[in-house]
UniProtKB/TrEMBL annotation, chain A:
Compartments where found: Cell membrane
Residues covered by the ABC transmembrane type-1 domain: 76-266
Family: Belongs to the binding-protein-dependent transport system permease family.
This protein's name: Carbohydrate ABC transporter permease
Taxonomic source organism: Lichenibacterium ramalinae
Transmembrane residue ranges: 21-40, 75-99, 111-129, 135-161, 243-266
UniProtKB/TrEMBL annotation, chain B:
Organism listed in the record: Lichenibacterium ramalinae
Protein family per UniProt: Belongs to the bacterial solute-binding protein 1 family.
Keyword Signal annotated: yes
UniProt lineage: Bacteria, Pseudomonadati, Pseudomonadota, Alphaproteobacteria, Hyphomicrobiales
Leader sequence segment: 1-31
Keyword entries, A-Z: Periplasm, Signal
SUPFAM superfamilies the record matches: Periplasmic binding protein-like II (SSF53850)
Stated name of the protein: ABC transporter substrate-binding protein
Sequence intervals crossing the membrane: none
Top-level division of the source organism's lineage: Bacteria
Length: 280, 437
């Protein structure tokens, strides 16, 4: 009795401010629905794809069937390798370029920066043939670097980091110079630590984009040893037939699991880093 | 407090680069005297298709030890043609690819493929080339040459739920044979609950994605073609027979009330059939294995009902030999194409995937004979081939087909009348095709 009364009282007290909470729950639910649906379909036989009864038998058969259809472990490994390669490359290139645009004056700086901004407006798909030519000339077709190379010099990353670096107070910069820091030391000791939140945010966007990228990896790779997980998932998109949602859900869950788990583990660090960016 | 120093990241980068470079150069060095082919194929149906292809290719390599084939799974048909043409422009053309039979003019326009008849010089090869179903060859020939060899081909058929027929008081062993019977049966099969909501529709003809494909069947039954003069530069979207076929399609929903009104999804149509939301469905023979495995009731497969005559489109993928300029590779590519479309392999591929085996002699192989005996519906698509018409295939095919799809959508959603929509599509297609005339 008491156990039931207590939450009721609490609920009554929190009734008025809960409009906000209600909105948050509603938005959260809308966001989570596809995920919940995948969880449902992945763990139940195909007959229950659109029948939601509690008594539905739970099964792991979909995962087994999906695993049978493609070497997912290898694909996941390739994706991990690809993501690390792209992220490392982007961080190096974007930081150096952004630092140059933010704090150095040199001839043609504005023009060069406009060129970088221009890249933001061109869809990567439009350059696919040209990129393929370049990659082929380098002898890199069907390698993981071939998938990553076109994305290393990211206009978005350079732009974002330049904006972050521009907000670093000149006083900090001057103080470090007085202490005898060179340009690279300055970047490493002052600019990067201050801009950590931006770096993390950019890293998140980049990782999730490249985790999901499909068309370019599909075109430039030919072997199981180089293809990322998205290409593996494509096998289930059989357009001549109906789509087997159970298999699609099971395989998507398998491929998204590392990202989901990673986010849950580091959630606090992500949120904190965004908070810090806000406070500053 | 620097956690990693910059040079370390740079070292990782260069190591990765070097490793992958090594991996890519090590392969070709292994066997220098062999001919290396790359073979791109799409997967358009469920099931372990990549494994079936790998097995076929392994058999070919055993029979031809001097040829090494790399089979590359390349996504959907659209992605496969994109990949093949991109790779070609990058100087890494595939040698053989499975692409839509309807994309023939696009491939010729891109100067990417070779006529296959140029390779078939001896008597045996000529006999092989002449041995395919004529219906499938209609989308393989133009300008007196053969450009594509039928491989994974399909037609539209009608699937019906025998239990639903029994419940409606119809003969469960007899599918509707004509448009009138389709409407009459459909009316008996359409059921509503107490609230007036329809729980089971009589007929379902999907209308997104592949609408133009299915309309070709209805038009052929009404005695009309969409394909113009077959040169790839004309279409006849507004022919009277096409308009009356379109009228019949929309009437099924709007006038006879035996089909769900509005647009119907292609991908979920088999699902609707399994869940008894529709008692009859029109879809590809490529679905046969899927229906056989998943339908929770006895079902039948029949030819499409006739109006003036029977009719069905063909669809699916052909094998193309790419122009690489390397005579040894081109000759080996032809060998591969011939191997994959030999009677035994065509039968094997048909049995394992559900596609229609492309040659009459493939149906005479022992494997195919015992398959048909065990599962007679497999032969329906073959028997229907005598009524099959050429599939819509033009230059700039994807865009021309899109104009037709949009017109069909407009009619089914009630936005336009059939005549107005189809005349609009005709004008748009004429505009697209003008540069090629």
């Amino acid at each position: 009795m008491r156990a039931a009364a207590l939450p009721a009282a609490r609920r009554a007290a929190g009734l008025v401010p809960s409009l906000e909470a209600l909105g948050a729950w509603l938005l959260g639910l809308v966001w989570a629905l596809p995920l919940l649906y995948s969880l449902w379909t992945a763990f139940h036989p195909a007959a229950y794809e659109t029948h939601f009864t509690l008594g539905a038998p739970v099964t792991l058969a979909n995962f087994a069937a999906a695993r049978q259809a493609a070497p997912f472990a290898r694909y996941l490994f390739n994706t991990a390798l690809l993501i690390s390669f792209i992220l490392a490359g982007q961080m190096v290139v974007s930081t150096l370029a952004a630092f140059a645009f933010a704090r150095f004056t040199f001839r043609g700086r504005t023009l060069a920066f406009y060129a970088v901004l221009l890249q933001l407006m061109i869809l990567p798909e439009a350059l696919m043939v040209e990129n393929y030519r370049t990659v082929a000339a380098l002898g890199l077709v069907d390698t993981i670097p071939a998938i990553g190379l076109p994305y290393l010099a990211s206009g978005f990353g350079i732009f974002l980091l330049r904006q972050a670096f521009l907000t670093v107070p000149r006083e900090l910069d001057d103080a470090a110079r007085v202490e005898g820091a060179g340009p690279l030391g300055l970047l490493w000791r002052v600019y990067l630590p201050v801009s950590r939140a931006t770096l993390v945010a950019y890293g998140l966007v980049s990782v999730s984009y490249h985790w999901n990228n499909l068309l370019w990896p599909l075109i430039v790779t030919n072997s199981v040893g180089t293809r990322p997980i998205t290409v593996g998932l494509l096998i289930f998109a059989s357009p001549d037939q109906g789509v087997s949602w159970a298999l699609v859900a099971a395989s998507s869950l398998m491929s998204a699991a590392p990202l989901l788990v990673g986010f849950l583990l580091f959630q606090r660090a992500f949120v904190q880093s965004f908070m810090r960016a806000g406070i500053k | 407090m620097p956690p990693i120093r910059l040079p370390a990241a740079a070292r990782v980068l260069s190591a990765l680069l070097a490793a992958s470079l090594l991996a890519s150069t090590a392969l070709p060095a292994r066997a220098a005297e062999k001919v290396h082919l790359s073979f791109f194929y799409p997967v358009a149906i469920g099931g372990p298709v990549t494994r079936i292809v790998d097995d076929l290719v392994a058999d070919f390599e055993t029979a031809n030890p001097d040829v090494d084939v790399k089979a590359v799974y390349a996504g959907t048909y659209q992605e496969t043609i994109g990949k093949a043409l991109t790779a070609r422009k990058g100087g890494q053309s595939p040698d053989v690819a499975v692409l839509l039979s309807a994309d023939m003019f696009t491939m010729i326009d891109q100067d990417a493929v070779l006529p296959v008849d140029g390779f078939a010089k001896d008597e045996a090869a000529k006999a092989w080339l002449g041995g395919f179903f004529p219906a499938f060859m209609r989308n393989s020939r133009t300008a007196d040459h053969v450009w594509g060899i039928p491989f994974q081909r399909s037609t539209t058929v009608l699937y019906w739920n025998k239990d639903a027929f029994k419940e409606a008081g119809l003969d469960p062993e007899k599918a509707p044979q004509s448009w009138d019977e389709l409407v009459a049966d459909g009316k008996k099969l359409t059921k509503a609950d107490a609230a007036g909501q329809t729980t089971q529709w009589g007929v379902q003809i999907p209308s997104n994605l592949t609408a133009y494909w299915l309309l070709q069947g209805l038009a052929a039954q009404a005695g009309a073609l969409l394909t113009g003069d077959g040169s790839g530069t004309t279409v006849t979207f507004d022919a009277p027979g096409v308009v009356s076929a379109m009228q019949f399609w929309v009437d099924l929903a709007q006038k006879h009330h035996v089909m769900k009104p509005g647009s119907i999804d292609w991908a979920t149509t088999p699902k609707d059939f399994f869940e008894r939301k529709a008692a009859i469905m029109y879809t590809t023979t490529g679905n046969l294995t899927n229906v056989r495995k998943n339908a929770p009731f006895p079902f039948g497969v029949a030819m499409l009902p006739a109006d003036k005559q029977r009719g069905t489109p063909t669809g699916g993928g052909n094998l193309y030999v790419f122009k690489t300029g390397d005579a040894a590779r081109e000759a080996a590519a032809f060998k591969l194409v011939r191997f994959l479309s030999s009677p035994e392999r065509a039968a094997e591929w048909g049995i394992k995937t559900g596609y229609v085996a492309t040659r009459p002699d493939a149906w005479e192989t022992p494997a195919m004979k015992s398959y048909v005996q065990e599962f007679p519906p497999a032969a329906v698509a073959r028997d229907q081939l005598q009524y099959a018409v050429a599939e819509l295939s033009t230059y700039d095919n994807q865009r021309v087909a899109r104009t037709m799809d949009d017109a069909i959508q407009a009619v089914l959603t009630g936005a336009k009348t059939p005549a107005a929509a189809l005349q609009g599509a005709q004008a748009e297609a004429d505009r697209l095709l003008k540069p090629y005339r």
